[in-house]
Structure formats: C-alpha cells, structure tokens
Design brief:
three-stranded antiparallel β-sheet, about 60% helix, Rhomboid-like fold, globular
Length: about 230
C-alpha cells in the first residue's frame, strides 16, 4: 500500500511544508557529498539517547541541539523519500489548518516527543537516531484525527499487478500505525540499542499528534468542508 496524494484541497501555499522538504533534500545531498561520510555525520549530529537523558556531551553539538539536527538527516534514498512523500501528502493540510508558524512549531515539537519516546526504550544507547520520521508521524496523527474521511490515492499491489484505489485516510494511516505498533512490540527496544528502525519514535510522534493537535487548533478557523471531525 503506497499512498501518493490525497483529495483534500488546501487554501494556502504550504510554505513550511515545502521548505522542510527542500531542507531535508539539501542536507541529504550534503551527506552524500561530504568527505567525512554519512556515518560520521550521523554520530556528530544525530540524537543519541544516552545524551538526551544525561546531557553528557558526546558530540560537537549540545544534546538539545542534536534533536533538531537529527530531524534533517537520513540514512538513504528510501528513508528520505518515504518521509518526504508522507510529509507532502499530509503536511500541507495540517499547515492549512494550523497556519504556517503553528505548523512549524507542531512539527518540531512532534520531533522532540518522538526522540524522547525512542530514548525511553533505550536510555543507555549511544547509537544516534536520525530522520524526520518522528515529526512526520506527528503530522499523520494530526491528519487521522482531523481528516479521517479524506480519500487517499493509494497504489495496491497484487503480485505482479497493481491497482490505484481511493482509500479513506483512517484506513491508510491506521494501517501504517498498526505496523509501527506491531514492529515496536516485536523489537522491544533492540533497535534502539543496536541500531535499526526506531519504531518507538514513530509511535511517540503519532501519539503526540493525536493528543496535541486540538490544542494547536485553539483559535483557528473551522473547516469549510465536512471532511473533518467537528
């Protein structure tokens, strides 16, 4: 199941969604071109759980700053492409509902919540966490709450064949959330300690988005369509 767009129009130009995607791409190009290598960059600017708990400085930057730099680093093309695809599909609608500056704050706070959710599962780990997945997960949590009936164009594969379907966001994002939860339970902190996918960060970011989006919407306009919850 690969989503590629939704039928949920926006009334603004999502400047920050576009800027975040562009910045992630530029940083990834820098990672590829850097003579120090992607692994060295990850250890220098990724979020290290042990440092986030103890504030022991194991990197050139302060642990608090590493939370933000880690959000813009990626381990490969698929890591970057998947995160940016989901951000483009769902982020513009959240920026439309929140406004530009609130959206940016929501996105960054979602990344912080995700980093500490991962840290709680592996507090002694010195393996750096990188990627926008946690912050993007917060966007998905907000979207499923605000636009559960919005239709998402999704490529479904059936062996060697595929079909494009319009699937409710509740199903697309709900299916994604179930995968994160199942994998998180199966790995049970092993990924955080030894390296791998930080499933807990995805779950933490998603839960943050679901729980906090209503607070960020205080004072914002009501939607003109009936696609969102009242």
């Amino acid at each position: 199941m690969i989503p590629y767009k939704d039928d949920n129009p926006v009334s603004i130009v999502p400047y920050f969604t576009i800027c975040i995607i562009a910045l992630n791409v530029m940083v990834f190009i820098w990672e590829l071109a850097s003579p120090t290598g992607a692994e060295e960059i990850a250890y220098s600017f990724g979020a290290i759980p042990h440092s986030l708990i103890t504030f022991e400085r194991l990197q050139p930057i302060h642990p608090a700053a590493s939370i933000f730099t880690a959000m813009f680093l990626h381990a490969g093309f698929f890591h970057l492409g998947g995160n940016m695809l989901y951000l483009w599909i769902f982020g513009n609608n959240i920026e439309d509902r929140l406004g530009h500056l609130r959206f940016l704050l929501f996105y960054l706070m979602g990344g912080i919540a995700a980093a500490y959710a991962h840290t709680l599962t592996a507090p002694d780990s010195t393996v750096p966490m990188i990627g926008a997945s946690g912050a993007v997960s917060a966007v998905l949590g907000a979207y499923i709450l605000l636009f559960p009936r919005a239709r998402v164009y999704t490529i479904m594969f059936f062996g060697f064949f595929y079909q494009i379907l319009r699937v409710p966001a509740l199903i697309v994002i709900g299916f994604w959330a179930i995968i994160q939860l199942v994998n998180g339970l199966l790995t049970s902190g092993a990924a955080g300690a030894k390296g791998g996918v930080a499933w807990a960060a995805h779950i933490g970011g998603f839960v943050f988005g679901v729980l906090v989006i209503r607070i960020f919407m205080i004072g914002r306009r009501r939607p003109r369509s009936g696609s969102s919850l009242p």
